[in-house]
Amino acid sequence: MREDSTPSAAILPNFILVTLPLDRWSFDLNDGCLSDPPERGFPRHAMAREEFDHDLQQLEAELVLLGALVESSIFNALNAIKNRDLVLSEKVIQDDDLIDDKRHLVEDACMDLIRREAPVASDLRRIISALHIAGELERMGDYAEGIAKISLMMGPEPPLKELVDIPAMGERAVHMLKQSLDAFLTRNEIAAREEALAIGPDDDEVDDLYRKVRVDLLALMKTDPANVERGTYLLWAAHNVERIADRATNIAERVVYQATGDRVRVGAGKEERVFETPG
């Protein structure tokens, strides 16, 4: 059989090579597609950055809303157990679904940003930090829900003792939450670090109050065995508030990481320890 000297013509007889005028098109390195060129005076990367910044601000706004829901839940739970308000306790339990839904919304937004933008360096740390902070906030909401359930278990009878220290713990814990979220929204690295690390003394104060609550309640339970059940309920509630404060310190540590790339441990009477991130 005789070989054809022009195999390509035999295989693709109707093929016509078309050369695109590349000066009228641009090649998108993100998706590998040819597309219309950007408008004159407005580079493609500038438009992409502006859209990314807008999406990141929306993400942070949703995170702040999640924080507000958690803050409200904590205050409602503490007021319910202090005032023996069983209706308010039920509301806290129902509202936990809103917190869960908002957490999932933030998670989905984080994953979508990572998928679409493939961020690097500080942008990636900021998104990953938002993802972790959403998880911490959701757990805070669970602790508030736990306090509300304890309130329902206690029923309408008055608490074993007037509640002073546990609400004070809650106030300090919520202040820590607000301060850590404010630090997350701070654009200046030094200011974010200082504001986040400043919650350490508040965490120490919460721990001191928790120890006082335990000592006082255990003394009452030892004095009269009839106090054991109600005292145990209050110990559980105090433990949940203490854990809320610990979650706030976790957020603060995450804020320092997203702002500087350094890993730190703060609060709970510990000296700050810094672990620099490699590379």
Verbal overview:
The protein has 279 residues and is mainly alpha-helical. Helices cover 71% and strands 5% of the residues. It has helices spanning 7-11, 44-83, 86-117, 121-154, 165-185, 189-197, 200-223, 228-260; strands at 26-28, 33-35, 262-265, 273-276. The strands form two sheets. The chain has a two-stranded antiparallel sheet. It is elongated and about 65 Å long. Residues 1-38 and 268-279 have low confidence and may be disordered.
List keywords for this structure.
279 residues, mainly alpha, two-stranded antiparallel sheet, two-stranded antiparallel ribbon, 8 helices, 4 strands, disordered N terminus
Number of E-state strands: 4
Mean pLDDT: 81
Strand content: 5-15%
Distance between the termini: 64 Å
Instruction: State the helicity in percent bands.
Output: over 70%
Detail the poorly predicted runs: 1-38, 268-279
In angstroms, what is the radius of gyration? 28 Å
The biggest sheet, with number of strands, parallel, antiparallel or mixed sense and barrel status, is:
2 strands, antiparallel
